[in-house]
């Protein structure tokens, strides 16, 4: 494959940022244990991660094609490497806020760049969907790896600051990823030199006024609200509702990431035989059924000795499986949306995707955190049923708009 090194560099970037971004749930739990902050204060880490993603992706989506994909990726990676190596030295809660803000800024650049590169190295809609699902599947493999990496540094001393040493390892991995980017033969993206940067930025904003794009944005927002609300707070749910030790609570959360990875890889095969709209609706019904089945099992659990993964209650294994069902939704709607646009619009469209995904993630985590703090963990997870119903509505509208646009293009 002539683009092998480019795909490898994209996959490595996504794998690395999967670990960094989705460690926020583990870091929230550790911040509560080691820095004596409240759940509401700890939930702010999600905002420090996601708000920079939204702002930066909004500002740079039209700028990245001008400086080139390689330079954009290297700038993001070197920023993260520096902050990873600095965080254990500082050893403070505010340093974690700064780290996640840096990771958020960098990921905005990485995601816009990677999504644009996918359009560059694939030749048709089927190839685009296949590579996008594969890259997103590898992202979830990175999330899965991250839970075990952090759990290894936490060990039995859950209240010790020694767990921050994990960032030395992550800083080294970031530098290795930068070497892969340097070695990848990335083409300079095409853009109109006559068109001022301001006009390109306005063009990205105008995309959001299209009915198809508006419905898509709402679908993506609601999906990420669910994924981040559940994924970010699952370690704390396992620890404080299911009464599991911190290291085991984090390790069991890896089932959620594994489920997402398997679900996206399976979806790539199922979509060859099943229409995307039918598959996603089956997934939504299954998600709601699993939540309604599992949460009653978590009521009034008696504390008991849990010395290994096998001592955990059944609910600790069932709840993360919601990831298997939600997995196909995000990459499928992204692929349908991007495949309907010209390649030159992929970078600005990805900017919009990242903006509203980040806002959905922050909203989901903050709502879950506040409900968890003041009402209870079970009630916080029951709330996920509301955006599930919302997605069912937006998917119906999205399908109708996509069909209407396809018919208009065929005329």
Into which percentage range does the β-strand content fall?
A: under 5%
State the order of secondary-structure elements, H for helix, E for strand: HHHHHHHHHHHHHHHHHH
Average pLDDT: 81
The count of DSSP E runs of length 2 or more, i.e. the number of strands, is 0
Global morphology: globular
List the helices and strands and how they pair.
Blueprint: H1 4-22, H2 24-34, H3 39-60, H4 64-67, H5 69-90, H6 93-121, H7 125-154, H8 166-183, H9 197-207, H10 211-240, H11 246-270, H12 276-294, H13 315-318, H14 322-326, H15 329-339, H16 346-374, H17 377-382, H18 385-410
Helix pairs in contact: 1-6, 1-7, 1-8, 2-3, 2-10, 3-6, 3-16, 5-6, 5-8, 6-16, 7-11, 7-15, 9-16, 10-11, 10-15, 10-16, 10-18, 12-18
How would you describe this structure to a colleague?
This protein is 78% helix and 0% strand. It has 18 helices and no strands. The protein has helices at residues 4-22, 24-34, 39-60, 64-67, 69-90, 93-121, 125-154, 166-183, 197-207, 211-240, 246-270, 276-294, 315-318, 322-326, 329-339, 346-374, 377-382, 385-410.
Q: What attributes does this structure have?
A:
single chain; 411 residues; mainly alpha
Nutshell version of this structure?
With 411 residues, the protein is mostly helical.
């Amino acid at each position: 494959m002539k683009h092998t090194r480019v795909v490898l560099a994209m996959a490595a970037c996504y794998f690395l940022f999967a670990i960094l971004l989705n460690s926020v749930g583990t870091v929230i739990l550790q911040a509560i244990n080691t820095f004596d902050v409240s759940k509401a204060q700890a939930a702010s880490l999600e905002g420090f991660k996601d708000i920079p993603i939204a702002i930066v992706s909004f500002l740079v989506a039209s700028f990245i094609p001008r400086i080139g994909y390689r330079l954009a990726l290297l700038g993001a990676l070197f920023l993260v490497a520096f902050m990873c190596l600095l965080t254990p030295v500082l050893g403070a809660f505010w340093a974690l806020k700064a780290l996640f803000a840096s990771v958020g800024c960098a990921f905005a650049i990485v995601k816009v760049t990677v999504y644009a590169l996918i359009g560059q190295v694939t030749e048709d809609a089927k190839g685009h969907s296949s590579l996008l699902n594969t890259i997103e599947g590898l992202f979830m493999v990175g999330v899965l790896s991250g839970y075990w990496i952090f759990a290894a540094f936490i060990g039995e001393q859950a209240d010790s600051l020694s767990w921050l040493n994990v960032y030395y390892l992550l800083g080294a991995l970031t530098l290795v990823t930068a070497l892969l980017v340097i070695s990848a033969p990335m083409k300079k993206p095409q853009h109109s030199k006559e068109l001022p940067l301001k006009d390109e930025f306005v063009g990205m904003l105008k995309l959001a006024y299209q009915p198809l794009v508006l419905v898509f944005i709402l679908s993506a927002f609601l999906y990420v609200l669910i994924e981040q609300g559940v994924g970010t707070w699952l370690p704390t749910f396992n620890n404080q509702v299911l009464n599991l030790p911190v290291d085991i609570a984090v390790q069991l959360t890896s089932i959620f990431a594994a489920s997402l990875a398997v679900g996206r890889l399976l979806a790539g095969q199922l979509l060859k035989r099943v229409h995307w709209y039918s598959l996603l609706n089956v997934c939504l019904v299954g998600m709601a059924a699993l939540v309604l089945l599992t949460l009653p099992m978590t009521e009034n659990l008696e504390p008991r000795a849990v010395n290994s993964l096998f001592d955990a209650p059944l609910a600790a294994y069932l709840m993360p499986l919601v990831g298997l069902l939600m997995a196909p939704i995000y990459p499928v709607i992204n692929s349908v949306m991007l495949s309907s646009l010209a390649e030159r619009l992929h970078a600005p469209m990805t900017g919009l995707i990242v903006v509203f995904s980040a806002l959905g993630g922050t909203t989901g985590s903050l709502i879950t955190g506040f409900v968890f703090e003041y009402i209870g963990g079970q009630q916080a997870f029951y709330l996920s049923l509301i955006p599930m119903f919302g997605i069912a509505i937006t998917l119906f509208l999205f399908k109708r708009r996509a069909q209407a646009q396809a018919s208009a293009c065929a005329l």
